[in-house]
């Protein structure tokens, strides 16, 4: 009986997720259809909705512009057909997190496999219905991609939510079996999966937050250019509303672009384009106001910062590997440079290796300090590295502590 309830609730969740995301696409398009489009029937409205929904779930669209439009706009015939693959990630993010919520509820009820399968099947059925009834020559999608990609998004979210909940609360099944094997591992390995997931989530949250802040700063700095581009568009109220809604659904995409830009590789708006700290080669950019926030050229200082941070991480990795070769397990600490021994219930984090770097007039100077066998009493006379809530340790002390513990254990 419980599995039947979980099946029905998970199916309902998937149906609601599909309905809400379709509604988010159809409502503004219906407004546009009612007020500004003439000569198009309800079938055209549904086809446009299906295209937006599929693109929002990562399905590339092959766009073929009509001959009449090409003549009227003066566009060359060679540009009549192109592939649109730039997904508005707001749709994808909504489906993922809604599915994660459904998977978590199924795991809490003790039948996460049943819930995930039921939800994915219903969402796949909705995807098939949309693909088969919304097909059109203007913006067409490969049938296999239209059938496969949206359910994969839902599956990824449902699995993430279900596994996270089952790992936390137990499921009397596969996840508990895996956790039992993990808990039987020696040393700190039982804690590694949880620490890894928490670390990844923390790092991703920090990256998204920093990227969102950087994008907001870019919008403020380039605000005049954004307003000017919006004014030059000469659109009416309905057109302005549609552009604003389009920019909103692309907001997660813009934040991902900002993240990629800050990380160094940059991003591309289309074939042959690149926007990165090294330089901007955007080519022809659509007249969307928010795209005026794109940097007009490369940023040397940001590129230097990216390279310096990468260099520091490589030096840290070299020290961690050196310590590991001598049986001393070390790690990085988020928000602090250098190499550390992890905190224990008895002691805070303790720094074993420090890094110093200076960049001046194109010349770099750097050095590392790996404490090997030092008189630790000197560190009581000042605050090392200005960090008062952590300690300092040398290379040999962890080995002596283990030897002492082993001796007293016997």
Summarize the helices and strands and which ones pair or pack.
Elements: H1 2-35, H2 42-56, E1 61-64, H3 67-73, E2 81-84, H4 89-108, H5 112-133, E3 139-140, H6 143-169, H7 174-183, H8 192-221, H9 223-233, H10 237-249, H11 251-263, E4 274-276, E5 279-281, H12 300-325, E6 331-333, E7 336-341, E8 350-360, E9 363-370, E10 391-392, H13 397-409
Parallel strand pairs: 8-10
Antiparallel strand pairs: 1-2, 1-3, 4-5, 6-7, 7-8, 8-9
Helix pairs in contact: 1-2, 1-4, 1-5, 1-10, 2-5, 4-5, 4-6, 5-6, 8-11
Query: What share of the residues lie within helices?
Result: 55-70%
What is the tally of helical segments?
13
Low-confidence stretches: 402-410
Instruction: Report the principal-axis shape.
Output: flat
State the secondary-structure class: alpha+beta
- Strand proportion: 5-15%
Q: Please give the largest β-sheet.
A: 5 strands, mixed
Straight-line distance between termini = 56 Å
> If you compute it from the alpha carbons, what radius of gyration comes out, rounded to the nearest whole angstrom?
28 Å
Order of helices and strands: HHEHEHHEHHHHHHEEHEEEEEH
Kindly report the average pLDDT value: 81
In total, how many beta strands?
Answer: 10
């Amino acid at each position: 009986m419980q599995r039947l309830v979980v099946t029905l609730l998970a199916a309902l969740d998937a149906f609601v997720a599909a309905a809400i995301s379709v509604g988010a696409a159809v409502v503004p398009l219906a407004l546009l259809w009612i007020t500004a489009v003439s000569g198009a029937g309800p079938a055209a409205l549904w086809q446009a909705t299906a295209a937006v929904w599929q693109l929002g779930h990562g399905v590339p669209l092959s766009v073929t512009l009509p001959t009449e439009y090409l003549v009227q706009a003066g566009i060359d015939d060679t540009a009549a057909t192109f592939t649109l693959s730039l997904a508005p990630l707001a749709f994808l993010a909504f489906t993922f997190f809604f599915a994660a919520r459904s998977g978590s509820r199924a795991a809490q009820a003790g039948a996460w496999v049943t819930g995930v399968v039921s939800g994915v099947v219903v969402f796949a059925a909705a995807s098939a219905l949309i693909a088969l009834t919304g097909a059109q020559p203007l913006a067409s999608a490969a049938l296999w991609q239209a059938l496969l990609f949206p359910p994969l998004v839902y599956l990824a979210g449902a699995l993430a939510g279900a596994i996270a909940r089952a790992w936390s609360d137990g499921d009397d099944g596969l996840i508990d079996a895996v956790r039992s094997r993990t808990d039987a591992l020696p040393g700190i390995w039982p804690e590694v999966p949880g620490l890894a997931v928490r670390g990844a989530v923390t790092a991703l949250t920090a990256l998204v937050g920093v990227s969102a802040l950087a994008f907001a700063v870019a919008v403020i700095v380039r605000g005049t250019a954004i307003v000017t581009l919006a004014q030059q568009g000469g659109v009416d109220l309905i057109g302005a509303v549609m552009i604003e809604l389009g920019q909103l659904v692309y907001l997660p995409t813009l934040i991902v672009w900002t993240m990629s830009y800050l990380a160094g590789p940059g991003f591309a708006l289309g074939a042959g384009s690149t926007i990165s700290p090294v330089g901007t080669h955007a080519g022809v950019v659509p007249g969307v106001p928010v795209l005026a926030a794109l940097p007009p050229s490369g940023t040397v200082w940001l590129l230097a910062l990216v390279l310096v941070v990468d260099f520091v991480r490589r030096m840290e990795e070299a020290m961690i590997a050196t310590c590991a070769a001598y049986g001393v397990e070390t790690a990085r600490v988020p928000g602090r440079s250098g190499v550390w021994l992890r905190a224990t219930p008895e002691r805070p984090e303790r720094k074993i290796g420090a890094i110093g770097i200076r960049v001046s007039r194109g010349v770099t100077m750097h050095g590392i300090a790996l404490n090997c066998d030092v008189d630790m009493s000197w560190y009581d006379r000042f605050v090392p590295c200005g960090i008062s809530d952590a300690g300092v340790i040398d290379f040999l002390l962890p080995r002596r502590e283990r030897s002492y513990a082993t001796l007293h254990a016997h």
